Prior knowledge:
Number of domains: 1
Structural class: mainly beta
CATH topology: Porin
Distance between the termini: 38 Å
Strand order of the largest sheet: 5-6-7-8-9-10-11-12-13-14-15-16-17-18-19-20
Largest sheet: 16 strands, antiparallel, barrel
Radius of gyration: 23 Å
Amino acid sequence: MTILPCKAITITIFAIFMLSFFNTLAEAIPAFARKYKTSCTTCHVAYPKLNAFGETFRRNGYQIPEVDERYVKEKPVSLGAPAWKEVWPEGVWPNEISGTAPFSLWGSSFYRYDAESRVKHDFTFPSTVVLESAGTLGEDVSFFGSIWLIRSGGDFGGLWRLFLKFNDPLSGILPDRLFNVTIGQFEPSAVPVSNNRKLTHTPFLINNFSVGKNDFRFSNQRGVEVDGLVSSRLEYAVGIVNGNGTGRLDSTTNSVDNNTTKDVYARLGYKFGGFGLDGSGLISEKEDVLPEVKAEKSLYVGAIGYSGKNKFTVSNRTYDDNFYRYGFTFDFNYESLNLFGAVVQGSHANAYGNFKDTSVIAYFSEADLAIYPWLIAAVRYGVVDIERETENKDEVIVSLSALIRANIKLVVEGALHTTGGEGDLGIVKLEFTL
Length: 434
């Protein structure tokens, strides 16, 4: 047998194996859809954007409040008999893991038109491939992990998020849902609007701008966060994080932070109307099928604050920049319309290495309209005004998302910039999740 037929046979066997593997996954993943035997639209308006039920599910550590066991269709694997709870601390507290591998594969490909680029037309097929895993490790412990296998068309993106969340670790001492702890690499609650649950392709300018030489942006961080519900409609969160994002290990300090000082932040939010943040009014005790949340009439308002310190180098000299950001957010829902936004102000003590204060203000608003349950239009306008820069930065985003299937989405989007030197972009993007 020649080398060529051997290669052909090997490739064929590998292809059959992979097709078989992903056919199995396609029936059962994303992990939560498999666990509860439900559609993606139970939690999502259009993935990854969440509806009211999805937000309740997320806040509760990826569990359905109060009645999670009733809706679970996939039998978990027990790590110890329940009777061990009765003899603790003389024995190990029992736990559970998913009965099948809780993995999901998410990918995207897109065509891009860039008016300012030397290459104006580009096919990035694929653009992004992400391996995700999420689930629960028993009654009150949950996890979420996300690894970018391919990012920006070819580079390995590395770890995006990986964290554990402990719900009610002080149960019996404090009221339920009042005290939860998240540990790992996660998106802090002080981020004005989530980078991970946006409907559009274009990132939020309010999260992604930097000031001077300080490269701080609202993004995923390594640290610890405590959050909870004071009441059905009032939530809080406080946290402490490294502050320099998800930087790599520095061999000279054996640390992933670039300075000793840690950043701190807080959020306080209240929801008027609609379902409670804890899911009150959403789930009926008499139903065995998860609700399909189509729309609600509600207003969420939040206040955020962030204080940090970052280090940067100019001409072989190292500088520290102490800074803070504060502001408010809002999220208004009226049936098929969702209007949300934020205003953030701040100040930097030494962002340019000249020991002069620099003020900044950023704001945005986005309107999402569900024309049909599978077709959503979005329009966004955002501005960043940095004191020592000659002109503002702005963004005008017009986007149309179509769910070809529950797990396949087509996005047609334009990004326009009238100031700040950014070029205009046109995007046609195809996303899928298995």
